[in-house]
Write a structure and sequence with these properties.
Number of strands of chain A: 7
Order of helices and strands of chain B: HEHEHEHEHEHEEHEHHEHH
Largest sheet of chain A: 5 strands, parallel
Helix content of chain B: 25-40%
Number of helices of chain A: 4
Number of helices of chain B: 11
Helix content of chain A: 25-40%
Strand content of chain B: 5-15%
Strand order of the largest sheet of chain B: 7-6-5-8-9
Distance between the termini of chain B: 22 Å
Largest interface: A-B, 20 and 24 residues
Oligomer: heterodimer
Shape of chain A: globular
Chain lengths: 167, 320
């Protein structure tokens, strides 16, 4: 049980403002599957950006593949624009160890050489194991490692956070 | 009660070897096909390689020759960043009298992580899977007349790609079924995936009657066999496996069981024509059909690499 309360909708409003600040005129939004992809989709519409946002899956570059194995392929990367020379703004729901971001950046570079890569997240929960930081985080919290923080999206497209105890 | 576990699955029901499609849960087959879909898109990238098997050694053990299958396994393993060692085993240690299990013990001592095995004896990959170290994974690349599971899976990927749903299909498998491990793997896979009508078509000498026990409709008349089919899988006439006079001649076979435009016209208008290759033009399939608009023989080859990537990465990620 956790008493931590994170209002995902309020944080999304902050993220939208933060992302607006980070965007360059020709930046492309790329969401990290799955929570980040939902956020990028909504940001693309709310910020009235042209085209579709990209989606990155970190599955094929994960460093825990040996112990986790491969889940069914529902999370394919889709990048409907040129990566070479592009300014990429990565979006994710939760920044924790930094390992997902490391894997996602590797995945991104399989498609070309971007001019720059930035990162914006809804929640930075600390606990970094790699030298990776977000250019913008709507909230910074501290959570015990036994708790898993994940974003959910309801049928109306609204976001909520849930905290689960992991065993 | 002690249950004999499927040797391909670990205690959690996860795939650790791929030896045969027989007995695989439907969910595992769909997992392989879904994962193959992810890998198919890797071909469109600037970097056509992913690091899932980096640092792993895949040994291709082909006790029976096959350039094509060995090459597609090699490409699949390399796209997963594995180190691939091809052993021309038919001409090396076994020729000097080494037993199969001694060969495997030696290769295990070279720190193999995966064996891709083709053998003329049915069951050889099972024997290897039972005797290799627990961290080693085995993929059957064709054993005797028994099974060719990755070919069966790539055929299922092809059918799913073009037809979407298995549960309303009529699939005709035509030709030399008695010698065909591909046919056996296809029949098991089609049954598991819920195909309502599976037909085995060919002369009495090449289509075993016991197929009826597997829920297969046996047809000795080609026209009846392909009528209203959604999918026609042609098999290669396996001259090298024929012993004795099972057929009058290749020309006679083509006349009755070769797939020609006029026989194909009896199938559904959107019927797809498949073949595991290599094709014998004018023996089991007419050139105009092999190259025609219904033919999906070349997409099968492309899908085959993605399916083999899926199989190797799934089993490598699961522990015994």
């Amino acid at each position: 049980m956790s008493t931590l309360h994170l209002d995902a909708e309020a944080l999304y409003g902050d993220l939208r403002r933060g992302v607006r600040q980070l965007l360059q005129p020709d930046s492309r939004l790329v969401g990290i599957w799955s929570g980040g992809a939902w956020l990028a989709e909504r940001l693309q519409a709310d910020l009235q950006l042209q085209g579709q946002p990209g989606v990155l899956s970190s599955t094929l570059h994960r460093d825990d593949f040996g112990s986790r194995g491969l889940a069914a392929g529902t999370d394919a990367t889709q990048l409907p624009f040129e990566i070479d020379g592009a300014h990429i703004l990565l979006v994710d729901d939760v920044l924790y160890t930094g390992r997902t971001i490391r894997a996602a950046i590797n995945e991104l570079f399989d498609f070309g050489r971007p001019a720059s890569v930035q990162l914006a997240v809804l929640v930075d929960r600390g606990g970094r194991e790699l030298p990776i930081e977000a250019g913008y985080a709507a909230a910074k919290v501290s959570l015990p490692s036994a708790q898993k923080l994940s974003l959910a999206r309801d049928d109306a497209g609204r976001f909520t956070f849930s905290v689960q105890e992991t065993t | 009660m002690l249950m004999r576990r499927n040797p391909q699955l670990n205690a959690n029901g996860e795939l650790i070897h791929l030896l045969s499609i027989e007995g695989l849960p439907r969910a595992v087959i769909h997992q392989i096909l879904d994962t193959a879909g992810t890998f198919l898109s890797v071909n469109d990238r600037e970097v056509k390689k992913v690091p899932l098997l980096r640092g792993k050694s895949v040994f291709n053990l082909f006790f029976e020759n096959s350039t094509r299958t060995r090459t597609t396994f090699e490409i699949a393993a390399k796209r997963l960043s594995a180190d691939v060692i091809n052993l021309d085993i038919a001409r090396s240690s076994t020729a000097k009298g080494e037993s199969l299990l001694d060969t495997i013990a030696n290769l295990s001592a070279m720190h193999a992580d995966m064996f891709v095995v083709r053998h003329s004896e049915s069951g050889a990959p099972y024997l290897i899977a039972q005797h290799c170290a627990p961290h080693v994974h085995v993929v059957n690349a064709g054993d005797g007349r028994h099974a060719h599971p990755t070919q069966g899976l790539l055929d299922m990927y092809t059918i799913r790609h073009f037809k979407k749903d298995f549960t309303n299909l009529t699939v005709a498998i035509v030709g030399d079924i008695v010698h065909s491990r591909v046919a056996r793997s296809d029949i098991h896979a089609l049954s598991i995936l819920g195909v309502p009508e599976i037909r085995a078509v060919g002369p009495k000498t090449l289509v075993p009657g016991d197929l009826r026990e597997m829920g297969v409709r046996v047809c000795h008349d080609m026209r009846e066999g392909v009528r209203d089919a959604d999918v026609i899988i042609m098999l290669r006439l396996q001259n090298e496996r024929m012993s004795g006079a099972m057929l009058p001649s290749a020309g006679e076979f083509f006349k009755h069981y070769g797939l020609t435009e006029d026989k194909l016209a009896l199938a559904k208008p959107d019927c797809i024509v498949m073949h595991p290759g290599p094709i014998n033009r004018g023996v089991e399939i007419d050139s105009s059909v092999a190259d025609g608009s219904h033919s999906v023989i070349l997409p099968q080859v492309t899908f085959g690499i993605a399916v083999r990537m899926a199989v190797m990465s799934i089993i490598a990620g699961n522990e015994a």
